[in-house]
Write a sequence for this structure.
C-alpha cells in the first residue's frame, strides 16, 4: 500500500509498511522527533525509514554561508548536519542509520 500525506494526519496501521519515505520533510517540522517516532511505528519488521534533507555541513553550505540556497527560508525550521541528524534519529528511537551525503547541490 502507498500512502501520501501529512505525517500528522490520520493514524496509519502499526507495523504495516516496509518503507516510510520522508524526502525533504523533516527540516520543515516543528517536532521532527515525534514524526520519526510515528514513522518507525508504521514499519513492518525489517522496514526502513528513508529520509533526505539538506546537509548543513556540506562543502557548498560552508562555502556559501548565508547565501547557501537552503539557508534562505523555504519554511525550514531546522537544518541538519550528519552528527545532528544521527542524534535526532537516536532520540526518535531509530538506532541503526546509514547517513550518506550526495545528491543535488544548490
Amino acid at each position: 500500500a502507498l500512502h501520501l500525506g501529512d505525517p500528522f494526519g490520520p493514524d496509519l496501521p502499526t507495523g504495516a509498511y516496509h518503507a516510510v519515505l520522508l524526502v525533504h520533510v523533516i527540516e520543515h517540522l516543528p517536532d521532527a522527533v515525534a514524526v520519526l517516532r510515528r514513522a518507525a511505528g508504521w514499519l513492518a519488521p525489517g522496514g526502513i525509514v528513508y529520509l533526505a534533507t539538506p546537509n548543513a555541513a556540506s562543502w557548498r553550505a560552508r562555502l556559501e554561508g548565508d547565501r547557501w540556497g537552503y539557508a534562505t527560508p523555504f519554511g525550514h525550521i531546522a537544518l541538519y548536519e550528519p552528527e545532528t541528524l544521527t542524534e535526532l534519529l537516536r532520540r526518535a528511537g531509530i538506532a541503526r542509520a546509514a547517513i550518506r551525503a550526495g545528491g543535488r547541490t544548490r
